[in-house]
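Page 47, continued from p. 46.
Same chain as before, 288 aa.
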Amino acid sequence: MVNTLRTLFDLRFIQPGHTAGVVEVRSSQPSLEACTKLLTQLDNDRPQVMLDVHVFQISHQLTRNIGVHIPNTFNLYNIPAAALVGLAGQNIQQLINQLIASGGINQAGSSSLAGLLAQLTGQQSSIFSQPLATFGGGLTFMGLSLDQLAAALSVNESWTRDLEHITMRASQGNDATFHLGSRYPILNASYAPIYNSPQISQVLGNQSYIPPFPSVSYEDLGLSVKAKPTVHGDGAVSLQLEMQVRSLNGQSNNGVPVIANREYKGSINLKDGEPAAIAGEISRTDTI
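Result:
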């Protein structure tokens, strides 16, 4: 320090004092003032920066199902005219009862009639369950059944908003870290005695076997922030920032949970009190 001051201010009479932290200097008044100012600046503590961090995570899901189903298929039948006239506006069960009452159908075949009735009334594609458009006559008397006309209108919308607010203080040139969340255990390996020996059979038989503790690793979930500020002479701040947002996405692979990770790493320059948005991501998927 003495040699540096002697060289900068061209001092002839400078020496360390008898007390630690003291320098004795003899020079002109301007040189002494400049030397005192430099020593005062060197003696200052590191400047500190207060960081106010807001982390927003918004999930918006919109599902729409809008459309019209136009009939694109039809069924064409060749039907006797007498059957169509007999069934027009009447119930099938009533017609069968009338035939049994008149003696046209033997009641001994009632089980067969019941099966036929169930088949006719249960099939949605039966000619008796849908309206028919008829044309022709005689042997060419035909029935035409069209598909149904349907319209769909469905809209589902959901919003999810997460906010993390962090206030942390960091000194110049030092890393400041902050973690908000939990540590999630993940099973890496477990023990199973697949090789059987007399010793293993003995401990299994007397129930004195104690399995070893499985291998588990812990993953940090939540929000992690790491900042390293540098304060400049004009009051501006250069900030090296690393940020991670990790969470479980509800899926797993071979029993191991899948962790969703969003990470940012970069450097920004800010003035005192100036806000800044440092990262953004929008994912959009359309299905028509």
